[in-house]
From TrEMBL, chain A:
Source taxon at top rank: Eukaryota
Species this protein is from: Mustela putorius furo
Keyword check for Membrane: yes
Pfam family, one: Tmemb_9
Protein name: Proton-transporting V-type ATPase complex assembly regulator TMEM9 isoform X1
Protein family membership: Belongs to the TMEM9 family.
Main location: membrane
GO cellular component terms listed in the entry, alphabetical order: lysosomal membrane
Keywords: Membrane, Signal, Transmembrane, Transmembrane helix
Compartment annotation: Membrane
UniProtKB/TrEMBL annotation, chain B:
The species this protein was found in: Mustela putorius furo (European domestic ferret)
Keywords associated with the record: Antiport, ATP-binding, CBS domain, Cell membrane, Chloride, Endosome, Golgi apparatus, Ion transport, Membrane, Nucleotide-binding, Repeat, Transmembrane, Transmembrane helix, Transport, Ubl conjugation
Keyword NAD attributed: no
Transmembrane intervals: 56-76, 134-156, 190-209, 243-267, 317-338, 358-375, 428-448, 455-474, 502-527
Protein name from the UniProt record: Chloride channel protein
Catalytic activity: 2 chloride(in) + H(+)(out) = 2 chloride(out) + H(+)(in)
GO molecular function: antiporter activity; ATP binding; voltage-gated chloride channel activity
Gene Ontology CC terms: early endosome; endosome membrane; Golgi membrane; plasma membrane; synaptic vesicle
Subunit field text: Interacts with NEDD4 and NEDD4L.
Main location: membrane
Gene: CLCN5
Membrane topology designation: Multi-pass membrane protein
Entry-linked InterPro entries: CBS_dom, CBS_dom_sf, Cl-channel_core, Cl_channel-5, ClC
Length: 186, 747
């Protein structure tokens, strides 16, 4: 528990700096967007260019200039130029993380609903004896001080199994409270 | 004689699920712990470091909560943005781009049509390689509905299979938890994961719901999970609730980009006890969360919220009349919504409708999607709609709503005069009116379904639409009748008089206030959204009017109404108890009931106590000197008794069923050859609260509220007479208000 906490803490502290320090290698992550409204008989236009913030003004971005030289200043006063940046790597990473979590959850859901009952069926009768045996094994393994690989792995598996069983019971309880008895969350 | 070991048994001092905590005990335990650490810190350097780190741990925890909430909010925002656009098409440059980012670098966007670019392909373009024609429209329609149904189905299945507590908004339950109730698993890691994932799916499916309420739940889950890393907060339920208050503030802060509004929301709506120390820490957590979200930059342009407003045009005094009208509309809509939504949720609870949650979600999604696609204002996501409605039209805008006729020759410095509406504006008004009706009706059925659903964005949408309609109406009135008396002084021809975007904002605030009955926090959130103090007076006028109108029609806000619907044991802190009943009218046992079950201080055996525990279901027992005198010694909890007796039977030699249990300092004199006695003084609460039987219930209710008691003993002439628990108080209040006292559940 404490180790998990330490990992979570370190992860939390490293996450935003890692995000913020992503090197903006691709120039396609910055742009200067100038929107120019209709002027006299020229229709409105939007200009996009990958320039840095100091070059983000009408004169650098609006090319080719639709008005002759003396009108440029009046035209540029109407235009509005904004500097924008984004991080495509952040977007890509987050979408990939999200889709993989959804995929993992869907697989686990399929496993729980389809595969799990099939695995548990043959053990229905011998399950109790099997559990008792494994419990005794687990206690014996814990009591033994020798670092045997076999029983130790059994204990870990047994612990995971036990945690999963407890979690399933918890979810069943929650489902009954919310969906069947409507005691909570209407 | 066996002396009881003084070390605490694991399990003593914890609470069962669906029970209320004892605030007084938790707070005094924290003070004891703090005193012990301070005393020890003088002994060695290590202890000094320990005491400094203990003081610092609160701030470190706030920092971590802010970081985690901000990161999760960024993930939710970016994923929801992408998946919403997935219903309409996909980007060929990289499937992870949504529509706006796909066309970001494109050279083919035009001024009139800023959405079209060749890199973004709608589904009809992918399937039948064309975007024009009736068949393409049908294909797009079909794919839209299909994706919406798929997202909704995924959301409700994930909720049902993995974390049933992840449905709904979460704020009523968090209010109850913060008032001292325990709901195990409600703020756990599975609930966190499932709520985050399914919130994105629910928002993307086009349903009329928002993500602000669920974000508060997500932030509180983060707070609860991170509490486990710190001993100080893991073991103490009262300190943990301080952390949860701060986490709720961080949740609202990332939802709206409003740290101060978040803290005030936590103070006003969510928290029960809010000590001043928590204020500073909540602000810190909210700030860290907002800063983390900003650095992830989910919307580009370093904005935190999609509908950040940037105009600063002034408003005029006569406009207070339409603003107050919007306030009245907001109040009326709020009261109507609460009444109909509660009626529908009650139907879901009691009739057959509640047995088919998955089917219900799919049907509502299908209806919403089928009705939403034809109208472009319902097809876009609600946040985008609000953003467009808040926008002040300038020369640079080319949307339908900004299709005004430009009949002027010069424009002075960016300030546009009022202009007559063009064809586009009129058709937009019709479409917006239809949108308003659809949103009003469908939100009633959407809020409360078995998927994460929030209320803020739909209410703001309803208000924004109403406000914009009124604003455009006022603007056209001012243009065509500029010679009327009211417009003459302020709205001369050529002046920029009316800003419909401001009306939309005021309408949104009014509707949100009417539904949730927020006051200060609402105004602060709205003015943090706009970044200017100019609009505080209109916002306050609308918010106050809407609250008064809504309060006249129905006493409670939506969250309190849901608390009452579900029967949570929440003692309302804001209402006065105005009846003249006395403590002896409420206490148990009542006149014809058997006498109060008590334990004596040194004359009961282990077997007697176990019988009492198995025969009754009380959560605690008073301890008296003897049955004849009924003089009070203290109060002992059932759970602690069970754990201690079980532990004593296993660990101590000689403790059998006939051993005497004693709560005094020293064992009573025993004849020889009797089994050893069992001392349980350390689980006895030696300072239970008592009132006399003639105390007015007003004072008793006040004591329960202010001190956070679970139970209070009633004495008469110094002798123990009965007990009043928090559930009894709640039932009594319900009875006095003519409600069904049996609706208080969790008995």
């Amino acid at each position: 528990m404490k180790l998990l906490c330490l990992v979570a803490v370190v992860g939390c502290l490293l996450l935003p700096p890692a995000q913020a320090n992503k090197v903006r290698e691709s120039s396609e992550d910055i742009r200067c967007k100038c929107i120019c409204p209709p002027y006299r008989n020229i229709s409105g236009h939007i200009y996009n260019q990958n320039v840095s913030q100091k070059d983000c003004n009408c004169l650098h971005v609006v090319e080719p200039m639709p008005v002759p030289g003396h009108d440029v200043e009046a035209y540029c006063l109407l235009c509005e130029c904004k500097y924008e940046e984004r991080s495509t790597t952040t977007i890509k990473v987050i979408i990939v993380i999200y889709l993989s979590v959804v995929g993992a959850l869907l697989l686990y859901m399929a496993f729980l609903m389809l595969v799990d009952p099939l695995i548990r069926k043959p053990d229905a009768y011998t399950e109790q004896l099997h559990n008792e045996e494994e419990n005794e094994d687990a206690r014996a393994a814990v009591a033994a001080t020798a670092s045997l690989g076999g029983p130790r792995a059994n204990t870990v598996l047994e612990r995971v199994e036990g945690a999963q069983q407890r979690w399933k019971l918890q979810v069943q309880e929650q489902r009954k409270t919310v969906f069947d008895r409507h005691k909570m969350l209407s | 004689m066996m002396d009881f070991l003084e070390e605490p048994i694991p399990g003593v001092g914890t609470y069962d699920d669906f029970n209320t905590i004892d605030w007084v005990r938790e707070k005094s335990r924290d003070r004891d712990r703090h005193r012990e650490i301070t005393n020890k810190s003088k002994e060695s350097t290590w202890a000094l470091i320990h005491s400094v780190s203990d003081a610092f741990s609160g701030w470190l925890l706030m920092l971590l909560i802010g970081l985690l909430s901000g990161s999760l909010a960024g993930l939710i925002d970016i994923s929801a943005h992408w998946m919403t656009d997935l219903k309409e098409g996909i980007c060929t440059e990289g499937f992870w781009f949504n529509h706006e980012h796909c066309c970001w670098n494109s050279d083919h966007v035009t001024f009139e049509d800023r959405d079209k670019c060749p890199e973004w392909n709608s589904w009809s373009q992918l399937i039948i390689s064309t975007d024009e024609g009736a068949f393409a429209y049908i294909v797009n329609y079909f794919m839209y509905v299909l994706w919406a149904l798929l997202f909704a189905f995924l959301a409700v299945s994930l909720v049902k299979v993995f974390a049933p507590y992840a449905c709904g908004s979460g704020i009523p339950e968090i209010k109850t938890i913060l008032s001292g109730f325990i709901i195990r698993g409600y703020l756990g890691k599975w609930t966190l994961i499932i709520k985050t994932i399914t919130l994105v799916l629910a928002v993307s499916s086009g349903l009329s719901l928002g993500k602000e309420g669920p974000l508060v739940h997500v932030a509180c889950c983060c707070g609860n999970i991170l509490c486990h890393c710190f001993n100080k907060y893991r073991k103490n339920e009262a300190k943990r609730r301080e952390v949860l208050s701060a986490a709720a503030a961080a949740g609202v802060s990332v939802a709206f980009g409003a740290p101060i509004g978040g803290v005030l929301f936590s103070l006003e709506e969510v928290s029960y006890y809010f000590p001043l120390k928590t204020l500073w820490r909540s602000f810190f957590a909210a700030l860290v969360a907002a800063f983390t979200l900003r650095s992830i930059n989910p919307f580009g342009n370093s904005r935190l919220v999609l509908f950040y407003v940037e105009f600063h045009t002034p408003w005029h005094l006569f406009e207070l009349v339409p603003f107050i009208l919007l306030g009245i509309f907001g109040g009326l809509w709020g009261a109507l919504f609460i009444r109909t939504n509660i009626a529908w949720c009650r139907k879901r609870k009691t009739t057959q409708l509640g047995k088919y949650p998955v089917v219900e979600v799919l049907v509502v999604t299908a209806i919403t999607a089928i009705l939403a696609f034809p109208n472009e204002y319902t097809r876009m996501s609600t946040s985008e709609l609000i953003s467009e409605l808040f926008n002040d039209c300038g020369l640079l805008d080319s949307s339908k709503l900004c299709d005004y006729e430009n009949r002027f020759n010069t424009s002075k410095g960016g300030e546009l005069p009022d202009r007559p509406a063009g064809v586009g504006v009129y058709s937009a008004m019709w479409q917006l009116a239809l949108t308003l009706i659809l949103k009003i009706v469908i939100t009633i059925f959407t809020f409360g379904m078995k998927i994460p659903s929030g209320l803020f964005i739909p209410s703001m949408a309803v208000g924004a639409i109403a406000g914009r309609l009124l604003g455009v109406g006022m603007e056209q009135l001012a243009y065509y009748h500029h010679d009327w008396a009211i417009f003459n002084s302020w709205c001369s021809q050529g002046a920029d008089c009316i800003t419909p975007g401001l009306y939309a904002m005021v309408g949104a605030a009014a509707c949100l206030g009417g539904v949730t009955r927020m006051t200060v926090s609402l105004v602060v959130i709205m003015f943090e959204l706009t970044g200017g103090l100019e609009y505080i007076v209109p916002l306050m006028a609308a918010a106050m009017t809407s609250k008064w109108v809504a309060d006249a029609l129905g006493r409670e806000g939506i969250y309190d109404a849901h608390i009452r619907l579900n029967g949570y044991p929440f003692l309302e802190a804001k209402e006065e108890f105005a009846h003249k009943t006395l403590a002896m009218d409420v206490m148990k046992p009542r006149r014809n009931d058997p006498l109060l079950t008590v334990l004596t201080q040194d004359s009961m055996t282990v077997e007697d106590v176990e019988t009492i525990i198995s025969e009754t279901t009380y959560s605690g027992f008073p301890v008296v000197v003897s049955r004849e005198s009924q003089r009070l010694v203290g109060f002992v909890l059932r759970r602690d008794l069970i754990i201690s007796i079980e532990n004593a039977r296993k660990k101590q030699d000689g403790v059998v069923s006939t051993s005497i249990i004693y709560f005094t300092e020293h064992s009573p004199p025993m004849p020889p050859y009797t089994p050893p006695t069992l001392k349980l003084r350390n689980i006895l609460d030696l300072s239970p609260f008592t009132v006399t039987d003639l105390t007015p219930m007003e004072i008793v209710v006040d004591i329960f509220r202010k001190l956070g008691l679970r139970q209070c003993l009633v004495t008469h002439n110094g002798r123990l007479l009965g007990i009043i628990t928090k559930k009894d108080v709640l039932k009594h209040i319900a009875q006095m208000a003519n409600q069904d006292p049996d609706s208080i559940l969790f008995n």
